[in-house]
Amino acid sequence: MYAKINAYLDPSGLLFGHSNKRETSKYDMEGGDIDESGYYSSSYGSGSEGDSAPLRFIIIRHGERVDVTYGGGWTQRAFDQSGRYYPFDSNMPPSLPHRANWLDYDIDTPLTVKGLAQSWNVGNVLARYNLPVTACYSSPAFRSIQTADRILEGMGRKGHVALRLELGLFECTSWYARSPINFMSDNELINGGFNIDTNYSSQMNSLRLLENEYQYYDRSKETMKKIIKLHRNTGGTILFVAHAPSLEVLTRHLMNGQPRPERLAELA
Which of 65, 117, 128, 151 is deepest in the core (most CB within 10 A)? Predict the structure, then answer.
């Protein structure tokens, strides 16, 4: 993640995308007419976009995760029967916040030490480009929350920008059909040292169980539209921290591109 970040940064001011500039995507599907979710049923914003303040989006996936590094069921090695955590490798996080059921870490996995360092380094690079984040939205997945927290810390913005947990930024729910995920509560995260915006209400109140990839695109589009509307008058640099497919599903409609569900498996 750190090695690639400079490739996405443009000192002239364009970082991943602006809400007031729409271009035809070179990735549009030739002759494609698939629109199963009503993807173009409404525009990405509301009102006159010409009157909107400039918005810059930084969209980043989470860092290296423990379960991918050490395999499924890693919690059986790292926790005793009473739920006490014992890291078994130097790349394991030295500590983890308390949560109602420690077994939930098996699916709602944390970052490795390397993943935490990656995230801080990304924030440090962004700070050197003088891109002060004015708002930060994170998927409720713990790995995304940790990544967002460390990015803001690396930028020197952790105490200034609280994390807004947005349910609409989570991955496609059908990918978790066999293992439902339980997210940590605001109180658990705050007790774990995270700066959570408790006044923020998620733009999506619930997720459709077993949504397909077209519905995932549509839900992401609606989430992005609502967040753009929140910041349309003030502008600024908005940080999104979520998952590997997020850059695709959150921005595809902004470029007038059609959903490409066949690409998501490659990204994930």
Answer: 151
